[in-house]
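Input sequence (299 aa), recorded before submission:
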Amino acid sequence: MSVENDVQCGPPRPFLKWAGGKRWLGPIAPSLIPRDPGRYFEPFLGSGAVFFAVRPERSTLSDTNQMLIETFQQVRDDPEGVIAALTPMAFGKRSYTRIRKLIPELPSERAARMIYLNKCGWNGVYRVNKRGIYNVPFGPRKRPPKIFDDDGIRAASVALRGAELSAIEFGTSIAEARVGDFVFADPPYTVVHGENGFVKYNERIFSWEDQKKLRNALVAFHKRGGLFLMSNANHHSIRRLYSGFRKLPVERISKLAADPTYRKPVSELLITNYTFGDSDPVMNGNQPPSAVSSSISRM
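Predicted structure, token format:
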């Protein structure tokens, strides 16, 4: 289920760096997702790393972050406008502070601003104050980051051609999915007692009640005959919440800490309503590669 890319563009890759993003899952995602589902749904879009890895022909991508969705829309619809707006933007604290204060009139320029701030701010964190003003500090580097890649933006535009993009709540998106469709959900990692490293970035926008609403939406989707894969915190409260579903713990290194010495392994949980392996008719014998099998254990 792939979109053919223009030869000069190459394979699509995420054009944003997102805190809690799933770049680490991207290389193995095609082996974990059932072959040829109906429509692909991703209700917590972020950088879209899994979407770009899977490259579905038909998809519904959504997020409550309107600035994020507009950026994806502009990359899809006007990649050359976004590239033109990004070209004069230079890495540096003075430039970052100036661009952070701007609110461009043109949608393509707002998308370019979003990409620039994301790449030059601290660790890909998206944060706004009570007035809705983006307030992430500048992220100093030993070496200036590559803010964007022309062909990367064009490749992402090609991959997004079959995507519907909406700034909507996750429940509204999942409710649209029908029998045979597939949902990949990557919510903020909120747990009952806040015992998780991601909570401090997400606790104001995704509560434990939201976790329960998501569970109910996925259970309803399961009963409609759909398939889902979700990533979440490997925490006892999450495991209880999804009792009866398949759970696969996986460990990765967290990169959120400012000091690399505090970047330690984080255990995450993949939850599905289907199984992996060559005995599973849904997977049609599409087993995860050996490198994945060694890092994922069954519960």
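Checked by second reader. The two ends are 29 Å apart (CA to CA).
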